[in-house]
Amino acid sequence: MKNRNILIFFLILLLSCLPSAAYNMRQSSNIEGLSNSAILSMCRDDNGFLWIGTCDGVNISDGTSIYPFSQLFPGQTLSGNVIETIVNGDNNIMWVLTNHGLNLVDTESRTITTYSWFGGQELMAIDDDGTLFIMTEDSKIHLHRRKADGDFLIGGQSAIPFNKTKSIRICGNNLLIFASDGIYYLPIEHNSKGEALKIGKTSRHIDIPINFAQTNHDEMFIVDDKGILFEISPEGNLSRITDLSQYIAQRGHISHIIRNNQGNYYISFSTEGAIRISKNDKYEFQATNLKIPVGVFCLEKSKDQNVVWIGSDCRGVYTIWDDLYNVRSFDFNTFGNKISNPVRSIFVDDKSNIWLGTKGDGILRVEGFDDSRSYQNFSESTLYTSFNSDLRHNRYSHSGKANARYYGLPRKTVLTTTTMPITAYTRLTSARRSNSCTAWWSQTTQHYGCVPWATAS
Fold this sequence. Notes:
This protein has 457 residues and is mainly beta. It is built from four helices and 41 strands. The strands form ten sheets. Strands 14, 15, 16, 17 and 18 form a five-stranded antiparallel β-sheet that branches. The longest helix is centred in the N-terminal third of the chain and has 16 residues, at 2-17. It is globular, with a radius of gyration of 25 Å. The protein starts with a helix and ends with a helix.
C-alpha cells in the first residue's frame, strides 16, 4: 500500500508539471521501412490505412508497420515513382498521381488502371458519387464517373487560368475553384441517371485576394493577401480564424492546413517546419513550434482526428497527437454476464465484437461494441464456459507464440474460428489493436480500456 501511494503521488506530480500545450511526436523514416524519406503526399483509404507518397513510390502504414506498395499489390506497377498527389475515391478506389501519369488503384481487386496522358501537376476533387474531377494545365475539366465504368470525358473549360488556380473542390452541385482573385462557382450538370455530365458557366462567388487555399475531407481554408486565415463553410460563408502574416514572413510559403477535433490548426511550410495554432486560457490563438527542422509538404489526420501525420522533406513522417494519452475505461460490471477474474486476452473480430479471455470465468463475447459510447447495463454479451460449451477449462493460458487458445478447445465448437492473435504481456495483462487508431488492453482490475495506437505503441 505504501509503494502504491508513492507511485500515485509521483504520477500526480508529473501530470501537474506538464504544460497545457503538451503533445507527443514520433518519427518514421527510411530506417523504419519507408522507401524514401521525402514525403510529397499522404491520404487515408477507406480502411483507415495511411498511404504515403514519396519520391520513390507509395508506402502504406497500418499504424504499426510500413509496407511497400509492391508487397500489398504484387505484380502491379504505378506509372511513376514520384508520387505527387493521392486522393481517396471512396468505394475501395485510390487515385495516385505520379510524375508519369494518373493511376486508378482498386484496393479490393488489387488492380491498377493507368492514364498516362496526365503529367503530375493536375488538380483533383471527388464528389459524393465517386466521380473524379481533374483540372489540367490547359484549364479543361476532365471527369471520370466510377458508376459509368468508363474512360475520362471532358466536362468543360474553366475560365480561370490554371496558373491562377490554387485548389478545386466539389461542394453540392458546384465545382468550386479557388483562384488568386477569389472563389468561383461552376454548376455541375447531370444526366437522367444523376451522373455528372458537364460543367456550366464560371461565375465568381466571393471576391477576395487569395495567396493560399486548402480543401480537405470536410474543411476548406484560405489565406488572403494579408496573411489572414479564413475557414469556409459549405454554404460559402467565411469565418476569420487568425493572422498568420508573421509566420509567413518568418517561414515562407504555406504548404498545407488542417484542423483536428480539438479545434487546433496545423499549418506546414514548404521550407521551414510546421506550427500548431491553438487557443490559450484567454481564448486567444497562439502558435506552438513543432520543431521540425526541415520543410513540410503535406499533412493528414486520422478518421477520428486525434492523430495528425506530417510529411516532411527528407525526414519521413512525423506522427503527432495532442494529449499525453486518451483513455476510456469500461467496467465489467456493466455487462449482462459478470466476470470477476482477470482478463488475459483480447480479440476484436471483423464485426466489432470484442472477445475477452479470462483467467477462470471462460470467454466473454461483447457484441457490436462501440468504444465511442458509454454503456450502462450493457447486456448484449455471451459468456462461454465449460458448463455451456465444449470448453474443457475456464482458465486461459498462452504459450508465448503468436496465437493463444484455451486448453482443450475442440475443433467443432462455436469458438472454432476464434483463434485469438494477441500480444501477451506480463502477468494478467494483454493488449490488442482494433483499428488504425485504437488499442485495447486489460488490467488486473475489473476494467479494460482503449488508447490511440500512436501512444500505445
